[in-house]
Design a protein that fits this description.
CATH superfamily of the largest domain: Mur-like, catalytic domain
Radius of gyration: 22 Å
Distance between the termini: 35 Å
Shape: globular
Strand order of the largest sheet: 2-3-1-4-5-6-9-10-11
Bound molecules: zinc ion
Largest sheet: 9 strands, mixed
Number of helices: 16
CATH class of the largest domain: Alpha Beta
CATH topology of the largest domain: UDP-N-acetylmuramoyl-L-alanine:D-glutamate ligase
CATH architecture of the largest domain: 3-Layer(aba) Sandwich
């Protein structure tokens, strides 16, 4: 009976996916939902023979997954991944189904799976991964997940289902690092042993107080947000020493970072081919995943210089000699990190923000007031203009006005084709920060108007 259910569920999923592709559409949960109706534990059935690494946490899931993917490619491992960002249980199930034969046997021995934190409660248990990477816990779209402790609890429950996994935790995040002592699993801490920015934006910490006794943490250094060398003066809870650590940041600019990562007493130079301090964290977490999976660290550290970033994650487009970078934003912490790296800019640039308020963006857009956009204004002539777009373009414009962007530098352009045209008319680098659904629409417009591949191709 089970085999028949698996057969029909996989078949239905493949057919539904093919039909949607014929219609020229990308990511959708529909095929997976159909499959799960037919066989509710399909994911568990299909994942049985696959060695899987799951990446979860608030920020950095997609980029970390792409880095691990490159490490797999360079290690000669045959794998598949949920590249399209379909990271709920339906999307992950569909990804397993389309990479399986109708018998339910997966065609690939390995998989790299990015999982939404709430979905991880189910995904972890069913997939039974060999390794899990928790990137970090930050305050996310309020209306979707509630408080940080709620996100943390989702991850906790997910990890409890991953009985056989090596768990890679961010030592610098007091929230997720605290999960270590509750878990019987082998734990691998990773972290950054040094500050990463010369100057940082002023940020509101998402976790100023000890998770155990509520006293205020003391920091030896802060990397960004609430991440860094924290310790509680009252109960003694403190940052654990990471086994995989960034020891030095040798160089960083708006294109890349060069770091030294220590692992098992050896030092590895890594040239991370994406800018921004948060990508240094993604790199060291990928190194930790490599160790958890038994990959050669020399190979993994090299692969960090050549991985392809996920769509919209610092994705770079060269259009008629113009450089355009698209940087997905989801929450104040992620957004402040983008500003941190933009303030390293040494040549004039154009800044674009696209704000939507659909459910995948977060319906409450008040978070834009928690972002230190004032830093952009302080850049003076390096910031040549600010264009805003998206469903909530007017809210975004109000935020920039309040931040002190002069009216002559500020433009509201709601049509994406017009927006891109206006960007390219400026002869300078463009940095576009869209929220999730705005990114999908904008990405589709870039594909259509300028001949780039769609993200699902
Ligand atoms: Zn304490």
């Amino acid at each position: 009976m089970k085999k028949i259910r698996v057969f029909f569920a996989v078949l239905a999923c493949k057919l539904a996916r093919a039909a949607i592709r014929l219609l020229g559409r990308g990511g959708t949960d529909f095929p997976g939902r159909v499959a799960l109706k037919i066989c509710p534990d399909l994911l568990g059935q299909l994942a049985k023979t696959v060695t899987t690494v799951i990446v979860t946490g608030t920020n950095g899931k997609t980029t970390t997954s792409r880095m691990i993917e490159q490490a797999f490619i360079d290690s000669g491992i045959s794998y598949f991944a949920n590249k399209t960002g379909a990271n709920l249980i339906s999307g992950i199930t569909a990804e397993f189904a389309v990479h399986s034969k109708l018998s339910g046997k997966c065609k690939y021995p390995w998989a790299v799976i990015e999982s939404d934190e709430a979905a991880f409660k189910q995904v972890g248990k069913q997939v039974n991964p060999k390794a899990v990477v928790v990137t970090n816990v930050f305050r996310d779209q309020l209306d979707r997940y509630g408080e940080v402790t709620h996100t943390l609890n989702n991850i906790r429950i997910g990890l409890q289902g991953c009985k056989n996994a090596v768990v890679c935790l961010n030592a610098d995040d007091s929230l997720s690092a605290s999960l270590a002592e509750e878990l019987p699993n082998e734990i691998l801490f990773y972290g950054v042993n040094t500050p990463i920015y010369k100057t940082r934006v002023e940020e509101v910490s998402d976790a100023p107080y000890c998770i155990k006794c509520k006293s205020e943490y003391v920091y030896d250094y802060v990397t960004y947000g609430h991440l860094g060398g924290y310790r509680c003066p009252k109960c003694g809870y403190a940052r654990p020493m990471p086994q995989v650590a960034v020891e030095e940041v040798l160089a960083s600019d708006t294109e890349h970072s060069e770091v030294v990562i220590s692992l098992d007493g050896k030092r590895y130079d890594a040239n991370v081919n994406l800018p921004g301090g948060y990508n240094i964290y993604n790199a060291v977490s990928a190194m930790a995943a490599g160790k958890a999976l038994g990959l050669d660290p020399a190979v993994v550290s090299k692969s960090l210089s050549q991985f392809a970033c996920g769509f919209g994650r610092m994705e770079k487009f060269d259009i008629d000699g113009h450089s355009l970078r698209m940087i997905l934003i989801k929450n104040p912490a992620g957004c402040n990190q983008v500003l941190n790296f933009l303030t390293d800019a040494t040549e004039p640039f154009l800044f674009v923000a696209c704000l939507n308020d659909r459910s995948f963006d977060g319906k409450d857009v008040s978070w834009i007031w928690d972002v230190d956009f004032e830093r952009l204004t302080e850049m003076g002539d390096l910031l040549t203009g600010v264009y805003v777009s998206g469903v909530r373009a007017d809210d975004m414009a109000a935020r920039f006005k309040y931040a002190g962007v002069p009216t002559e530098k500020l433009r509201v352009i709601k049509d994406y084709s017009e927006l891109l045209k206006a960007c390219l008319a400026q002869d300078r680098p463009v940095f576009i920060m869209p929220t999730y659904t705005a990114m999908l629409d904008l990405r589709a417009t870039v594909s259509k108007n300028y001949g780039f591949k769609n993200f699902w191709e």
